[in-house]
């Protein structure tokens, strides 16, 4: 059975809990830990959901907010639903059905 996995990036929630309400407030603590990102990169990190994240950035964020990666990234895994396919009697044979011929009548 296939499993469908997803995750939720919770950096904004951790920032709000720590009293940080703008993305520019996160740049100095990151720089103190050797992570030098531009303000636009910090903004994307906070407002988006990253598909790739370096381990030094993850470690720095966990140190800043005194949390674990599990607190920062909430994961979820579910069994994928299987699509049902019509079989047997549910199949309709359309070869016997023919459309009616159209008749064109003169105006009048």
UniProtKB/TrEMBL annotation:
Domain HTH cro/C1-type positions: 10-77
Signal peptide: none
InterPro entries tied to this protein: Cro/C1-type_HTH, Lambda_DNA-bd_dom_sf
Superkingdom to which the source organism belongs: Bacteria
Gene3D superfamilies from the UniProt entry: lambda repressor-like DNA-binding domains
Coiled coil: none
Name of the protein in its database record: HTH cro/C1-type domain-containing protein
Species of origin: Streptomyces mordarskii
Organism lineage string: Bacteria, Bacillati, Actinomycetota, Actinomycetes, Kitasatosporales
